[in-house]
Amino acid sequence: MTAEQRPDRPTAAGLAGRVMITPLLPRPRLRRLVRLYAGLTLYGLSGALLVHSELGSMPWDVLHQGLARQTGLSIGTWSVLVGALLMLLWIPLRQKPGLGTLSNVVVVGMTVDLFLWLLPETDSLVARVGLLVLGVLVCAIATGCYIGARLGPGPRDGLMTGLAARGWSVRLARTAIEVAVVVAGVLLGGTVGVGTVVFAVAIGPLAHLFLPLLRMPDETPETPLPEAP
Asked: pTM here?
């Protein structure tokens, strides 16, 4: 067989393109990495701020907190484990991860535990309200950073968009998932309160504000951005 007749061998980039939503690291590489990991670190900080406020966690952290109380494992550890399990659900939904997806599973869990350890305890209601407000604001900025990096949605976002691709509306998919998560978390001992409601009401408009400001220029074929968590 001549060189002209020999079939092309798949390259690493070609194989990655079959299983990942974006090329492993499209340009501008350094800026995307900084944006991605800054966003994921801030997301972990926002989760820790809300937990420390003791006024109610964000929906998924209600579940992580409940699991932590039942098992003795940390909230961050459960964030990693739940994220990994959710990615298994992506397989039948035919969702493709990206570098951002894989990083989300690990980095958010690690950083939420780090900040839970670093943040001081407080009994002041004023301070706790401040932690709540700051947590929601930081989460919106974090969402703009890591989604704006365009390196793949988080595992929880992908579950929502996967259901939407199967005929669910995005609103219905998100609502059903988060209600189920909160109910399970409460039954396990997670904290729900005014902070959970404030987060649910405020995060959408705030993320909508920050997403265009922090979105990276797209030098790859257009891929849809997931709705903010």
From this structure: 0.82
